[in-house]
């Protein structure tokens, strides 16, 4: 277990009329992020009872790897575009791993 490992969770509430567009954009982000150096996991979930609610759980090998990810043009473009696609601001929280079952 690495003390440097960083986890980021994001909750995205899409506007109902564009939820499929949001899903496609997020799936593309997953594809691109998984190819980045330092990406351990990058998973996209949708709420079972509300198709407008998405959850991203991503794990990075280090803070530096996360910062490299955050500087990618595709991610910056999504964050700018997302303001017109979401019902509320995207909730992003960063976590430090302190225990694991692995």
Summarize, please.
This protein has 102 residues and is α+β, with helices and mostly antiparallel strands. The protein has three helices and four strands; from the N terminus they run βαββααβ.
3D structure, described in words:
This protein is an alpha+beta fold. It has one domain (6-96): Alpha-Beta Plaits, CATH 3.30.70.100. The protein contains three helices and four strands, in the order E-H-E-E-H-H-E. The protein has helices at residues 19-34, 63-70, 73-82, and strands spanning 6-13, 39-46, 53-60, 91-96. The chain has a four-stranded antiparallel beta sheet. The N and C termini lie close together (8 Å).
Task: Tell me how many strands there are.
Answer: 4
Compute the gyration radius: what is it?
14 Å
Q: What is the averaged pLDDT score?
A: 94
Biggest pleated sheet: 4 strands, antiparallel
Low-confidence stretches: none
Q: SS-based structural class? A: alpha+beta
Task: Quickly count the helices.
Answer: 3
Which outline best applies?
A: globular
For the largest sheet, list the strands in their spatial order.
2-3-1-4
What is the distance, rounded to the nearest whole angstrom, between the alpha carbons of the first and last residues?
A: 8 Å
Count of all domains:
1
Order of helices and strands: EHEEHHE
The name CATH uses for the topology is Alpha-Beta Plaits
* Share of β-strand residues: 25-35%
Q: Give the second-level CATH assignment, the architecture.
A: 2-Layer Sandwich
Q: What is the percent of helical residues? A: 25-40%
- Tell me the name of the CATH class: Alpha Beta
């Amino acid at each position: 277990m690495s003390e440097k490992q960083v986890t980021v969770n994001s909750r995205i509430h899409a506007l109902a009329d564009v939820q499929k567009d949001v899903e496609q954009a997020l799936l593309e982000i997953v594809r691109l992020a998984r190819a980045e150096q330092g990406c351990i996991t990058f998973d996209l979930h949708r709420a079972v009872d509300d198709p407008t609610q998405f959850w991203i759980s991503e794990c990075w090998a280090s803070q530096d790897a996360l910062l490299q990810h955050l500087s990618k043009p595709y991610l910056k473009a999504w964050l700018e575009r997302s303001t017109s696609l979401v019902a509320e601001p995207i909730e992003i929280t960063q976590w430090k791993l302190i225990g694991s079952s692995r």
